């Protein structure tokens, strides 16, 4: 009985939004069965996230096109491709541009613009190339130097970079891929267990009560 | 929910009018309806239907345009005050009032953050669901140390009513048998994490006078047949409650009291009905009904009943009473004592400490526990007070592993940094104070002399400040929490006191502005939440409180309300109302 219902629900999931599914659940199978069926990951089905492929092809809301190109590379360097995509592959630079425009004030926007410019200037000064033309290793070295206040980076640069990096990390782990693949996503945990072996999960949770 | 529930124009005289549909209003309606009384619930806001109107439930963070953050411009224009609430985000903002529609003023040099939830269900949709009975130490406090007036009731008066509401609502918790925190009728408690259990053991040795328990919360950890019959199921530990819960796993008007009331066939609801004032009959000294202004089109109408229950929230009910003026009551209805609007209290949540735990890296948890640990007030009688302030505070908190939200500020670039962000980090443990605020005459709400809202109702003017008692309490709470953590072996302990950064209001536990009391000269309500002045007018929300106590107030709103309905029904049957 249980497995048949589970199957039925999983099939339905691919057709319906999870939210509608939850709404209809009690009506569909009756209240008592819901409890058993919703435990586990059956509902961790997610919607597709449509990253814009062309964020670097034009100016953003906050950044110029040139800056968007730099920012995209910064994203790819801070969170590079591993068994999950890089931040630039997930259009986190596009998200940062959007989020700065909508949810941050002018001062914070300007600080983000300035630090992207500073990174490119330091690249030109020390490697005689714009940041996007550096090999990946040198791109990494430059950002490591920034966090160590090396080269001509100042502690203020570092503070503004940390703010940008914080938004970058937020942007990555709140994408569908970031939340559900890079992390463990429990849409409907099915109850709270106070003690389980860490290895049984192996990573942090991408599903949070507050973001 | 069927459409026949809702009324707009009606000439019917109901048995009972219930003003408000939140925690108190839901209970008043249910109790009247189940006793066979024709009841009209008057709600100022829109209809919110269970399940259907939980429009953000189950959405992944990536599905929100700004990943659950709210647009700057929108915050600036509409939610400047509401955004201060911890639960305000893009997934819940539709359950908060629009500040533009609900203006109020504050006395120069003071501030008060008034969080609004004006829709069917009110704040029962948004509440934090912590549920604790008052103890006799709470009811005795005013009498023993002389602040405020003596509560006209004691624990024994409420005990059976607490049980009554708990069985229906569903309260999870452990039978801890503490004098300062009476047991409820519990469903099983939520589980502790391993570090929490170890700290509990350490605290028990180091601080035997300060027991720590699992936070008691209105969640169905193990639904009874009664809960299942309400269409509710077990809590799934999503901890996204304020978006609404289609499982009905936490108590709200929609999940629990409204379906029970509707089932009787005795309930009608008048949504979008902003109560302007109560209609008072000088000859009979009775309230006949309410004057209502339509939320949307500003037309006026009236509703009538034999008895009126004000359950419109502390400030909401007080505003209605202040605005109900007559020859007999020129300063607000049932206000012969003159204390209406005075003694406004909130809780003071402005101190705490947290730090890192060593080890436990092989330990984890599954799910998002919708409650925390709770160390009830250990200064619960005058002999236990500190020398420089009175009353006490509880400490709430718990342990969890850090994640990218906290760790993203560390140095690091590249693959190792990414790997670090995907792993659970160190365990952290914190305790945060929830203190009592003393009742003070000067902390007052009144009607503004000239400012009105868009319905033409005089705005509230709030004059409310912390006193040195709350300030000294928070300074002590910070030190105490820090000391406890350090002695228990917590590392890198950081502590804070934030009382001068936060005005009253944000605990969203405002109470006290139409207080109960034995003496009609110094109180508005008698021991049954009935106004001293007018027999058929009752106020059963937080405005009736004589003291804030330390615990969260909602369970006591429920118990006072059902007890008051029981009393009102008896009085009506005896023809005294």
Give an account of the 3D structure.
The complex is a heterodimer of chains A (211) and B (577). The radius of gyration of chain A is 22 Å and the shape is globular. Chain A has nine helices and one strand. Chain A has helices spanning 2-15, 18-29, 31-37, 65-78, 92-103, 106-127, 136-147, 155-173, 176-182, and one strand at 193-197. Chain A has two domains: 2-48 and 186-200, no CATH class; 55-177, no CATH class. The longest helix of chain A is centred in the middle third of the chain and has 22 residues, at 106-127. Chain B has a single domain, classed as FAD/NAD(P)-binding domain. Chain B has helices at residues 23-34, 72-78, 136-145, 155-169, 194-206, 225-229, 253-263, 314-322, 404-407, 415-422, 468-487, 554-573; strands at 13-19, 39-42, 105-106, 171-172, 186-187, 213-214, 267-270, 273-281, 286-294, 300-310, 351-357, 363-366, 373-375, 393-401, 427-435, 444-452, 458-463, 491-497, 537-539. In chain B, helix 1 packs parallel to helix 7 and helix 1 (23-34) runs parallel beside helix 12. Chain B is globular and about 75 Å long. The relative contact order of chain B is 0.18. The mean pLDDT of chain B is 97. The chains are: A mainly alpha (211), B alpha/beta (577). At the A-B interface, helix 2, helix 3, helix 5, helix 7 and helix 8 of A face helix 5, strand 12 and helix 10 of B. Strand 1 of chain A pairs antiparallel with strand 12 of chain B, so a sheet runs across the interface.
């Amino acid at each position: 009985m249980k497995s048949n219902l589970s199957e039925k629900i999983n099939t339905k999931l691919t057709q319906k939004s999870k939210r509608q599914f939850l709404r209809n659940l009690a009506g569909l199978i009756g209240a008592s069965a819901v409890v058993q069926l919703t435990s586990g990951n059956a509902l961790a089905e997610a919607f597709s996230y449509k990253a814009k492929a062309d964020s670097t092809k034009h100016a953003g809301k906050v950044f110029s096109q040139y800056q968007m190109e730099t920012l995209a590379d910064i994203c790819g360097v801070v969170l590079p491709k591993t068994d999950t995509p890089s931040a630039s592959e997930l259009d986190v630079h596009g998200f940062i541009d959007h989020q700065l425009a909508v949810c941050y004030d002018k001062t914070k926007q300007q600080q983000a613009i300035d630090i992207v410019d500073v990174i490119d200037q330091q690249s030109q000064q020390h490697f005689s190339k714009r940041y996007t033309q550096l090999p990946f290793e040198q791109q990494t070295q430059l950002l490591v130097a920034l966090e160590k206040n090396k080269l001509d980076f100042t502690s203020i640069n570092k503070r503004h970079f940390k703010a940008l990096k914080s938004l970058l990390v937020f942007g990555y782990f709140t994408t569908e891929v970031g939340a559900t693949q890079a992390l463990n996503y429990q849409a409907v945990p099915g109850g709270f267990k106070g003690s389980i072996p860490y290895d049984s999960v192996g990573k942090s949770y991408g599903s949070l009560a507050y973001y | 929910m069927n459409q026949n529930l809702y009324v707009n124009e009606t000439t019917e005289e109901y048995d009972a009018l219930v003003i408000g549909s939140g925690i108190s209003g839901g209970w008043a309606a249910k109790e009247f309806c189940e006793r066979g009384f024709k009841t009209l619930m008057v709600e100022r806001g829109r209809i919110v239907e269970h399940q259907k109107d939980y429009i953000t439930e189950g959405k992944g963070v990536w599905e929100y345009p700004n990943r659950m953050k709210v647009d700057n411009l929108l915050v600036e224009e509409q939610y400047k005050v509401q955004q201060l609430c911890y639960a305000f985000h893009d997934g819940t903002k539709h359950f908060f009032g629009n500040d533009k529609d609900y203006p109020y003023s504050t006395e120069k040099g003071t501030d008060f953050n008034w969080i609004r939830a004006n829709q069917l269900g009110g704040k029962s949709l948004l509440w934090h669901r912590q549920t604790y009975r008052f103890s006799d130490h709470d009811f005795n406090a005013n009498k023993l140390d002389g602040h405020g007036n003596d509560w006209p009731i004691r624990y024994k008066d409420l005990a059976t009513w607490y049980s009554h509401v708990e069985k229906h609502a569903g309260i999870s918790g452990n039978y801890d048998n503490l004098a300062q925190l009476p047991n409820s009728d519990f469903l099983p408690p939520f589980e502790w994490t391993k570090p929490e259990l170890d700290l509990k053991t350490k605290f028990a040795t180091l601080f035997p006078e300060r027991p720590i328990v699992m936070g008691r919360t209105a969640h169905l950890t193990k639904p009874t047949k009664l809960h299942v019959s309400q269409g509710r199921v077990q809590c799934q530990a999503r901890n996204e409650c304020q978006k609404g819960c289609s499982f009905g796993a936490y108590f709200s008007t929609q999940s629990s009291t409204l379906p029970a009331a509707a089932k009787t066939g005795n309930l009608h609801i008048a949504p979008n009905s902003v109560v302007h004032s109560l209609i008072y009959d000088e000859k009979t000294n009775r309230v006949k009904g309410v004057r209502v202004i339509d939320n949307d089109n500003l037309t006026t109408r009236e509703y009538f009943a034999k008895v009126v229950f004000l359950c419109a929230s502390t400030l909401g009910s007080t505003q209605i009473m202040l605005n109900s003026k007559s020859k007999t009551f020129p300063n607000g209805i049932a206000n012969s004592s003159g204390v209406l609007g005075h003694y406004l209290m909130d809780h003071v949540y402005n101190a705490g400490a947290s730090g890192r735990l060593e080890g436990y890296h092989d330990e984890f948890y599954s799910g998002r526990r919708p409650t925390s640990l709770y160390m009830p007030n250990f200064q619960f009688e005058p002999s236990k007070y500190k020398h420089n302030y009175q009353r006490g505070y509880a400490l709430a908190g718990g342990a969890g592993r850090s994640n990218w939200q906290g760790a993203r500020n560390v140095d690091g670039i590249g693959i190792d940094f990414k790997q670090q962000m995907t792993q659970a980090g160190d365990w952290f443990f914190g305790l945060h104070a929830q203190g009592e605020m003393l009742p003070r005459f000067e902390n007052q709400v009144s009607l503004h002399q000239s400012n009105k809202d868009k319905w033409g109702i005089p705005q509230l003017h709030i004059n409310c400040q912390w006193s040195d008692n709350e300030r000294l309490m928070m300074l002590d709470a910070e030190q105490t929490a820090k000391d406890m953590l350090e002695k228990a072996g917590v590392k890198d302990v950081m502590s804070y006191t934030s009382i001068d950064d936060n005005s009253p209001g944000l605990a969203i536990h405002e109470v006290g502005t139409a207080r109960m009391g034995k003496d009609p000269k110094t109180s508005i309500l008698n021991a049954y939440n009935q106004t001293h002045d007018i027999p058929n007018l009752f106020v059963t929300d937080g405005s009736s409180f004589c003291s804030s106590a330390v615990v969260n107030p909602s369970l006591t709103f429920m118990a006072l309300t059902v007890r008051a309905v029981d009393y009102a029904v008896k009085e009506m049957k005896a023809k005294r109302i």
